[in-house]
Specification:
heterodimer; A: alpha+beta; 43 strands; 28% strand; B: alpha+beta; seven-stranded mixed β-sheet; 11 helices; 9 strands; 38% helix; rod-shaped
Chain lengths: 825, 369
């Protein structure tokens, strides 16, 4: 909402010396936030004067253009009193017209410096200005022609143009629809400075008699009040006076024609949207109803609109002639031949206005006000004001008669404890202050005992609840008076175990050299293809968005990997030799059924909540890791080391160790991993996820080097498996006995199986078994490998006797031989 | 070697003469002093204190002396060998010390060689920033509440007094899952977590609600330098007996001071949110210029204040829908963008750097957050 300061001052007697800054500060504190302060003519410097065109000589040019070589009387503003020679490209003026001239030495907005220059064979000394060049409008069709009664040539033109006038742009919150008018802004200013307010809506209007035009309202819920007036003998060629055109432009609207300008002006003044019809084009009575199936309407913007049965429309005998409250129709539009104007001002159901605006993607100044809620007492007043201006400025005669259908709903009444504003704000507010402030915003207040009853003014449909009144009182008292007091009753139990462990996981991974990334969860089917997921892979069954930002990524992801692999590719694309990333992403799986919409007058029952929560997609945190390219740099210590499957498993091991979860790995074949280099990671019978080298196709799809590796783990489950209380370990301090064994087994036998067999056979003296070498080669034979293990033996209560550890080792080897055919080398 | 000296012959035992012994000692001491390193000293030890050294050989001749002369000669030789042994030990210690000192010098390395074999890791500032915020509130006795990002429409809107015709509920602002008739959305704020907390815990005199909810939210904003379809919020909710706007102000002032430093407080401006009434915008004293000579301040653009978030007293309609006795209890709520907070706290020019995953961005934050 843009409001010229002079217009605000028309309705409120603000102190003469009040600065605009003080005004906007106070209004911002009251809730009308200063968005911008504009001053017309900003950026113009130097001599900008009124000139009178003396001669105008058209000169066709070789490029087909015609320029005008003019002499212009600028009084003695040029220091000589002689006519100024100026080349002008516009044609909308004649000798004798008064124009706006900027002389050499002047500056126009955009730091456009004016000087004498040779052009089109003349020495042009200055410029005749258009509105756009002056930064006061978009009109570039021609130069500004001032009215004949403009001041004498040589006079500074700034006064004529209304420069120096400050225009305040406010950010209006959706609940303060009344402030979308000068009436509302001025009322707030009066409130802020305790200044006298003259309500422009207070005017004597005729008694309604139904004779202005026949109006039938079939939907009084959608249209509680409809006012109509008629004028005749209107001179459509009468110009809009400059003061009105200037104010409209200052308020951000364009001057179109007198009749349209008057309706817009009154809307800005009072906040009531108004529509004017060419009465001669309206056929029969005006009727208000919902649109019928299949009905169409061409609106003023020349768009043919298919109407919905929810749209409120104005119809005459020809059918729909207006989208009620949002935009008029083309068939009854006022034109340069209009002599009779039918004026409509109506109160509309805000919700219906909002829905129609959204449905037709129509935002208009009228719609903006109607969908937020307008004062229902205004229609008759606003129509009368329009008639007054059409008579005064357009030479029209007011036809007798005033049609007013319906009645404004009665004012809302709110009851609350008198001390509620004090109790909620924490400021000591006397009851008398509460009453005074509520009265200042227009309430009628009655107090009985500890209870206060306020009758809300018609222009404040937003006030419905006691807490709404609290806000009104507190904003006038001042939000800056709210004291700063810490509440003292919080008795929280700290972070939950899950929250603490999630932090732990992040720190562990960062400590292991991984960098965390945050990616969008939006994916398309091409992501599943890039990961090589089979057609029936459950991960392809994703939650789909009804309105994705991009058609390429219409789903919510089922795995952390796509965003993570893209981030890895991006780093490598930007020149990184290698990258180690991790991410925790919420992933989801679709749920069955719809989530109900319950009422809000009570808490849903537990059973209702269960239905609601059951309809939400299943969501959990998936931890992803990608290791691509160089993991250890080359240096004076040796060559670089690239990522491989074992790095991915090492990350998993480290994480499991950090959380104290016993995990097992087994070979698996799952995309997007290499079928021979993928491990299923599990704890007990629960699969936690997968780790290993990525499939070569996947590396190619994401622009990653061969052997890039990745992990995807269900983090919620992993954390849930972490032990809550760990028993302190017991360990022996007696000497250790070490035994190494090398066992030859078939290639297909896993290291884990051999280690398990050794552990089983070695008996209770075994402290640890660790594989330290793998060898395959001619000495061993094809299809075989040699695994070397270091075994450590120790007794809890004594030093082992000679031969004890050797016997245990032999037993371990025997078990491996028995179970796996292992042969000691 | 001489045989047993049955027939005393002074010539045969001349090596035991005092002059001879002294000569051997002198020669030994000279050789010891001349030994330049431990290897030379080893040779000297063999020559002058070994089994074949003059003093050792002389020692063997003692038996050739007449009994009455043996004691004196024995003493003489013993003293001489002792002197040599002491000199050897002393020289050994000196040479060992010299050797060690030389080794330490020789083992000198260039400690400026790079040791960056494994690059460092880092957590994302959005993660650590959210933790910092959570910790500030946990220290005040608050708890951290969380909820799903894909949420029921009722919890995201209706329960929070955003009615069916609220502008935010259109497809132009909110991501809906398919089919839209299922009434499931990507949450547009973390406020449904507040609703969930009230619905699941209720409130009682002994168990008031003080929760802070950091989390990820979504809106259908086109992705550019200042907008993202995904961003992060932190919201707070307190529901207790006697909660006032003063408690809200106190909490946010404390939060601001902890997050931005001493003297950084907040101011309220009237605003509108469906879930709070009264509602306020929260501004923060610009932590760069502190409101002094703000005109040239790039962080607050001359305002002296930075817009931080929204807040207010929980609308009793919200309490009612979440099963809380709005006559007995009141509450306050606030919310701000974590991404936006990081942007002005760290002078980030482009929001997208948070979501690109470039390791150079993430590792730069170190442990500051």
């Amino acid at each position: 909402m843009k409001a010229p300061v002079s217009w605000i001052r028309e309705y409120v007697d603000l102190p003469a010396d009040l600065t605009t800054e003080a005004l906007t500060d106070r209004l911002t504190a009251l809730g009308l936030k200063l968005e911008a302060l504009e001053a017309a003519g900003a950026g113009i410097e130097g001599p900008l004067v009124v000139g009178r065109v003396l001669t105008k000589q058209p000169e066709p040019q070789k490029n087909g253009k015609v320029i005008n070589w003019c002499t212009v009387d600028v009084g003695d503003a040029n220091g000589t009193g002689q006519p100024q020679g100026i080349v002008c490209g516009a044609h909308n003026f004649e000798p004798g017209d008064k124009v706006v001239v900027i002389l050499p030495g002047g500056v126009l907005p955009g730091d456009f410096r004016i000087s004498e220059r040779k052009t089109y064979g003349h020495l042009s000394a200055g410029m005749i200005c258009s509105a756009r060049e002056l930064g006061i409008g978009e009109d570039h069709d021609g130069i500004i022609v001032l009215p004949p009664d403009a001041p004498e040539p040589g006079t500074d033109a700034r006064g004529v143009l209304g420069f120096g006038e400050e225009v305040i742009e406010f950010e209006i919150n959706p609940d303060r629809a009344y402030a979308l008018s000068l009436r509302g802004v001025a009322r707030e200013a009066a409130l802020g400075f305790d200044a006298p307010f003259r309500d422009p809506a207070v005017r004597r209007v005729p008694e309604p008699d139904g004779r202005a035009w026949e109006v039938q309202v079939a939907d009084p819920v959608g249209c509680p009040v409809f006012a109509a007036r008629l004028v005749s003998g209107f001179d459509a060629s009468a110009p809009t006076p400059d003061w009105m055109a200037t104010r409209l432009e200052q308020a951000g609207m364009r001057s179109i024609s007198l009749a349209v300008d008057v309706t817009n002006y009154v809307m800005l003044e009072l906040g009531q949207p108004i529509h004017g019809y060419d009465a001669d084009k309206v056929q029969g009575a005006l009727r208000v109803r919902r649109a019928e199936p299949g009905e169409k309407l061409t609106t003023l913007d020349d768009v043919v609109r298919e109407l919905s049965e929810e749209d409120l429309v104005i119809v005459d005998d020809s059918g729909p002639i207006g989208l009620a409250g949002v935009m008029g129709g083309a068939s009854t539009e006022m034109s340069e031949t209009t002599t009779r104007v039918l004026v409509e001002a109506a109160h509309w159901d805000a919700t219906s206005m909002f829905r129609t605006g959204r449905r037709h993607k129509l935002t208009s100044e009228a719609g903006k006000r109607n969908e937020r809620g307008v004062d229902p007492l205004l229609p008759g007043v606003a129509a009368d004001r329009v008639v007054e201006l059409l008579v005064e400025l357009g030479g029209a005669s007011a036809e007798p008669g005033f049609t007013l259908v319906g009645e404004a709903p009665g004012p809302a009444t709110i009851t609350m404890p008198s001390d509620l504003p004090a109790r909620i704000s924490g400021i000591a507010i006397e009851d008398a202050t509460t009453i005074a402030h509520l009265e200042a915003i227009g309430c009628r207040v009655a107090v009985e005992g500890d209870t206060l009853t306020a009758q809300v003014p018609a222009w404040r449909p937003d006030l419905t609840d006691p807490y709404d009144l609290v806000e009104e009182v507190v904003r006038i008292v001042g939000y800056d008076r709210v004291p700063s007091v810490l509440p003292r009753r919080a008795t929280g139990r700290g972070l939950t175990r899950e929250q603490r462990l999630r932090r732990r996981v992040g720190r562990t991974l960062a400590g292991a050299g991984l960098v965390e990334v945050v990616s969008f969860p939006f994916v398309g089917d091409d992501a599943w293809d890039a990961l090589g997921l089979p057609a029936d892979d459950p991960r392809r069954n994703a939650v789909r968005l009804a309105n994705p930002l991009s058609a390429e990524a219409p789903s919510y992801t089922t795995t952390v990997l796509p965003g993570l692999l893209e981030a890895a590719g991006r780093n490598l694309g930007r020149g990184a030799a290698g990258v180690a990333l991790f991410e925790t992403q919420t992933v989801a799986r679709p749920a069955e059924g719809a989530a109900p919409i319950y009422g809000v007058d009570r808490r849903p029952t537990d059973a209702e909540l269960e239905v609601l929560l059951g309809a939400i997609p299943v969501q959990w945190s998936e931890l992803g890791v990608v290791l691509a390219g160089e993991q250890e740099r080359a240096g004076w210590w040796g060559p670089a080391a690239d990522a491989g499957w074992q790095d991915a498993l090492a990350v998993v091991d480290r994480l499991a160790a950090e959380l104290g979860v016993e995990i097992a790995v087994a070979s698996a074949s799952v995309m997007p991993w290499h079928p021979g280099r993928c491990a299923r990671v599990s704890a007990g019978n629960t699969t936690l996820g997968f780790a290993g080298e990525l499939h070569p196709n996947v590396c190619r799809a994401y622009g990653l080097p061969a052997r890039s590796s990745a992990v995807a783990i269900d983090l919620d489950t992993l954390i849930a498996l972490a032990p809550t209380v760990v028993r302190g370990p017991e360990f022996s301090t007696y000497p250790v006995a070490k035994e190494d064994v090398a066992l030859v087994v078939d290639d297909t036998v896993t290291a884990a199986a051999v280690a398990a067999a050794l552990r089983e056979g070695a008996g209770p003296l075994l402290e640890s078994v660790r594989l330290f070498d793998v060898y395959a080669g001619e000495q061993i034979g094809a299809g075989k490998k040699s695994l070397a293990f270091a075994l450590r033996f120790r007794a809890p209560d004594r030093t082992l006797a000679e031969g004890e550890s050797g016997a245990a080792r032999d037993a371990a080897v025997a078990r491996a031989a028995e179970l796996l055919g292992a042969v000691q080398r | 070697m001489s045989g047993p000296n049955t027939d005393y012959d002074p010539v045969e035992v001349s090596t035991l003469q005092p002059e001879e012994v002294q000569g051997a000692v002198d020669a030994a001491l000279a050789a010891i002093a001349a030994a330049g390193d431990l290897d030379e000293l080893k040779q000297v030890r063999l020559a002058h204190a070994g089994d074949r050294s003059p003093l050792a050989l002389a020692n063997r001749e003692i038996g050739a002396l007449p009994p009455q002369a043996r004691k004196e000669a024995g003493q003489r030789i013993g003293q001489a060998r002792g002197a040599v042994a002491r000199a050897l030990a002393e020289r050994q210690a000196v040479l060992e010390a010299e050797h060690e000192a030389r080794m330490l010098v020789e083992e000198t390395v260039d400690v400026t060689l790079p040791v960056d074999r494994r690059p460092a890791g880092a957590r994302h500032p959005l993660t650590t920033g959210a933790e910092l915020i959570a910790d500030i509130f946990v220290a005040m006795g608050w708890e951290v509440a969380e909820g799903p990002v894909i949420e029921a429409e009722w919890l995201n809107f209706d329960a929070l007094n955003l009615g069916p015709d609220h502008p935010a509920r259109t497809m132009q602002d909110t991501f809906w899952t398919e089919p839209a008739e299922d009434h499931v959305v990507l949450r547009t704020h973390t406020s449904p977590v507040q609703a969930r907390t009230m619905l699941s815990r209720g409130v009682s005199e002994d168990a008031p609600i003080y929760v802070v909810c950091p989390g990820r939210v979504f809106r259908t904003d086109e992705y550019d330098a200042t907008h993202s379809p995904m961003f992060h919020q932190v919201e707070g909710l307190a529901v207790d007996e006697g909660i006032t706007m003063a408690h809200l102000k106190g909490t946010l002032d404390h939060f601001a001071t902890q997050m931005f430093g001493e003297g950084i407080t907040t101011r309220f401006r009237p605003s509108y949110f469906p879930f709070t009434e009264p509602s306020a915008e929260v501004d923060l004293v610009c932590f760069v210029c502190r409101g002094v000579d703000s005109d040239s301040c790039r962080t607050c653009r001359g305002e002296g204040w930075i817009e931080w978030g929204g807040c207010g007293i929980v609308n009793p309609r919200v309490l009612r829908a979440c099963g809380i006795d709005s006559e007995r209890y009141s509450g306050f709520a606030f919310g701000m963008g974590i991404d936006r907070t990081l942007m002005f706290r760290h002078g980030l020019e482009d929001l997208r750097t948070l979501f690109e995953g470039d390791v150079r961005f993430t590792t730069a934050f170190g442990s500051e957050l």
